[in-house]
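Good morning,

Both structures are done.
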Amino acid sequence: VGLAAQTGVVMIVYIDHAYERRLAAGQINSLEDIVEAHAEGTIQRVRPKLMTVGTMLIGLVPLLWAEGSGADVMKRIAAPMVGGLVTSAFLTLEIIPVIYTYWRAEQLLWRRVGESAPARLPALQWIERAITAGLFVAAASLVLRVYLARPPAALLVMAAAASVVAALSLVAYVSARRGARLAVERASLAALQ
């Protein structure tokens, strides 16, 4: 877990540096610009990540086929580490950049909404807070059920209600986001004419 967390954080730092450099130069104006900036940051981390994973796999894979004394214990240690290394590489090189790109695209949309349709921005912010609150209450309720010796049934009801609030808020966000995006596009077209 430590290696995966560390390399994930380093990946985000490199993506942030590439993004901030382009943002300061005024080169972030569309989703394509965000994707290019994130690709630049990600590409800088491909070789170091693959070298780390490759080196560790070279050391661990022979343990999976060991036959000597203590091999049964070493196999049980090496197998999850090999799986974790492969999963960590996929997470760091594929999943984190995609999620981060989506988040930056939302930031760009919010910035544009604030510039061209500021009346729509508070609705998006309140809906986002409702989603966050619903997810937090649902997660807290489920965690409390695990840690309490005799959890009350109300915790399960609270988790379900909070999940429904989060789901309905997500539907509202998608609808409000679509309207905000269309308002931004209309404002952009009007500015071009």
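Second structure follows.
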Amino acid sequence: MDKTDNKASKNEAPEYRPLYPFIGKWNTHGNAKAGKGEPDVKIEGTDTYEWVAGGAFVLHTVDVRMGAERKESIEVIGFEKSTNKYFMRSYDDAGEITEMIAEFGKGTIRFLSDDLRFTGSFSDDEKVLSGVWEQRNNEKWEPLMDIKLSKS
């Protein structure tokens, strides 16, 4: 069974439904914000979300180019019943580890950590995911990148 198909998840509990639209392979495009007076850096590549561990978790694989630099990472997304929260933990090619919480509201998606956050949404047909990443600079949130994923 294809792990990038929602049928691959054995878990049909309602708390897993917000993860269903992510499943699949996505073409990724965006712009990372550069410093003042510098041009934005183009982002292109792929993001893949697939069920793992019998549908208990989602594995997110990133393979993109940010300008001339290739960036790769993996992320595991899961639901913890005891806290009623979605946890995300990513590992990138620079050895960095990031932990975030995912929140799903009516029409909105938020990923949050102490110094990073994403706010976005799916198109009505769930074939496009777009949003803005922001980074905390002291106490102020500043744009980091605009991103658009289109299901391939």
